[in-house]
Amino acid sequence: MSRSEIERGMAKAENYERRALTLINKGDYPAALGELIKAIEKYKTLAARFQRSVLYDRWLEKADELLVLAKKIKGKAKTTPEMVKEGAPISIKDCDEVGERVDPETNKLDFSKLAGMDKIKKILRRTIEWSLKEKEKMEEHGLEPTKGILLVGPPGCGKTYLVKCAAGEFKIRLLIASPASTFNKYVGETPKAVRKVFQCGEKMTPSIIFVDEIDKLLPDPSRSSDSSGVTGQALSTFQQEMDGAQSGTGFIVMMATNDPELLHPALSRTGRVSYRLYIPPPDKPTRAAVFRINLEAPKLILEPEVQNFDLLADLTAPQDGWYYASSDIEEMCRRAKEKRFEIIIESGNEEIPLTLDMLKEAINSLKPSISPKQIHRYEKWADEFSG
Ligand SMILES: Nc1ncnc2c1ncn2[C@@H]1O[C@H](COP(=O)(O)OP(=O)(O)O)[C@@H](O)[C@H]1O
Ligand SMILES: [Mg+2]
């Protein structure tokens, strides 16, 4: 390996990089892009030529970072030097600041843990797997990779959970941005947070970025009480980023809301969103499966009657138009298991089964959480927009 050749190569790459940054600061993006591309090529050439160098990883990392930067400034007419600076390279670790990161290695969920939703599973399998893994083939056959997927439905019926299960099923990375995990930390700076979320999608590719409770993050500015204009800026940043997230970026944007009426029409109607899916309250087979999934544990013994999950599903059928959410059923199971555990701790006998009576008591202690009025609203939305 030639030391001087490496040194010369690095000096050139760093030179291109410096020139690019100067040009960015002057606002001359086309020229900056040219320099960036030269720098990227230089770093890649170094890596290819000197594969055993201790600097090998660093060169590839550098090339990656600059590529992100190049994509940022490419095709953005209204880019300002500030925006580009904010768009400067970030590391995967920085993504923890803007959301909850779930890696395939730590994700314990997959579709086997998700009750019902067969149609949705099928759509996601097609759209996510194809878009991330068969992108070129799709294009060759005249199909566009999926851009955004919007999930709409009552609280507690599995929107957030579904996304986690999908990421686990397809073994791809996931970044969940939500009011709690993200936007708390960026009060008054939502546009910045939005940009970071998208940068992370690119950094973590192939990945899903999931903006949970998007109505709270990006409410329709005309309905919002915010007078600072940040809401409007955040929305337009989001739209720009969605448009910029070209098919080649290797991440999919998913969004969820309990309140579709609060969304700006740009999010619910235009081509920016490839699919709008209604996630309804659980039907009978789904309720049975939610019971089954929540009543499984190595030492959890069930009375034979409790193993009749269809019966449990019947006991939680809608009443006068009021529906139980999946999260209600999860809570019933928790209460019944807790009751049993209390008896085990008192008696020291772990062989005691969970009885139908324990479950009935738990079921009766919870009222269905979804009202007929809510259902009506969602169904109206689904009629108009979903698909
Ligand atoms: N289809 C399902 N199968 C199994 N468990 C579910 C399902 N849907 C929801 N749950 C349970 O209910 C909880 C609440 O669901 P969540 O995804 O948070 O609802 P949402 O995001 O729609 O408000 C989840 O953590 C999960 O344990
Ligand atoms: Mg949720």
How does this model look, in words?
The chain has a six-stranded mixed β-sheet with strand order 1-3-4-5-2-6, sandwiched between helices. It has helices at 3-26, 29-49, 56-73, 81-86, 118-133, 135-140, 159-170, 179-183, 190-203, 214-217, 230-244, 265-268, 284-294, 309-315, 326-347, 356-364, 372-385; strands at residues 100-102, 148-152, 173-177, 207-211, 251-257, 273-278. By secondary structure, it is of the alpha/beta class. The relative contact order is 0.10. The chain is built from 17 helices and six strands. Helix 1 (3-26) runs antiparallel to helix 2 and helix 13 (284-294) runs parallel beside helix 15 (326-347). The mean pLDDT is 87. Adenosine-5'-diphosphate is lined by residues 114-117, 153, 155-161, 286, 290, 293, 326-327, 330.
- Under the CATH scheme, which class of the largest domain? Alpha Beta
Count of all domains? 3
Bound molecules: adenosine-5'-diphosphate, magnesium ion
Relevant CATH superfamily of the largest domain: P-loop containing nucleotide triphosphate hydrolases
In short:
The protein has 387 residues and is α/β, with parallel strands linked by helices. The chain is 54% helix and 8% strand.
Give me some keywords for this one:
387 residues; alpha/beta; Methane Monooxygenase Hydroxylase, Chain G, domain 1; Rossmann fold; Helicase, Ruva Protein, domain 3; 3 domains; 6-stranded mixed beta sheet; 54% helix; elongated; binds adenosine-5'-diphosphate; binds magnesium ion
